[in-house]
Amino acid sequence: MTHIPPTTVNWCSNPVSGAGVGLRAPHYHYIEQQQPDIPWFEVLIDNYLVAGGEALQYLARIRENYPVTFHGVGMSLGSTDPLNMTYLKNLRDMIRRYEPVQISDHLAWVSTGQTYLHELLPLPYTEEAIRHVSTRIQQVQDFLGQRILVENVSSYMQFQDSACTEWEFLIEVIQHADCDLLLDINNIHVSAVNHRFCAKDYLDAIPASRVREMHLAGYEDHGTHLLDSHSRPVHAPVWELYQQALTQFGPVPTLIEWDQDIPAFNVLEQEARCAQDIYDTFLDQAYEPPAGHTTAATVSRL
Ligand SMILES: [Fe+2]
Prior knowledge:
The protein is α/β, with parallel strands linked by helices. It has a single domain (19-287), classed as TIM Barrel. The protein is built from nine helices and twelve strands. The strands form three sheets. Strands 1-2-3-4-7-8-9-12 form an eight-stranded parallel barrel. A two-stranded antiparallel ribbon has the order 5-6. Helix 1 packs parallel to helix 2 (54-63).
């Protein structure tokens, strides 16, 4: 991929704060024309790693008016495949050109034998996996020249070899890799129901100093399990968990994700407004970390 470097583009330099929305193709025209009152957009960067086309043109024009973050699904951080250096070079080109405020991908594997599976698959929660994925995150950060955020995924199965909880695994990885955390509140709820653990225990364990972004989305209830479909409004238990997260972590930039059955933009705006209203109450309260909250310095090793 060859991108022409920017000449004198003045990208919007606002930081990301408040409740943003995922940038999706059906909304390009509306956003460009109407410039809705949304504080930031998250760009699903895998859709833009091409040498040209309409999507990149829209991205450039929207970027002039809004801060953006880059969110990827292609690093395959947990895979045993070699890191995909072509992907990372293309990503680095895009970072240099569009100057996202932060970059994230998932604590998962999406490829094996260099074949991409189009699923975010969980890892076994073992010391070997911690070492493996932490090393790869460090290599990615070294290559990109900046910290990244890793996101907890939802899951429907667990490995018998796992020796700790998901949140203990997550904490160990971010400590070892020295990276930051994108905490998906919906994913915590979905996995808590599917695997019968307490979502509040999960949140309680997370080091507040590492949480740089949160995701909210809607799931489907299939009776036997919840499916992380990103096809619905945010459900009540997730809103409730979001309030606990804000109590614990303070006002962290929050994103509404919606990837299937994408509705009109005003539906996303409404969801973002709900998140913003909750977020604003924590801004007004002049957030102070609760006494005894877990910090990066007090997390124990496995
Ligand atoms: Fe997410």
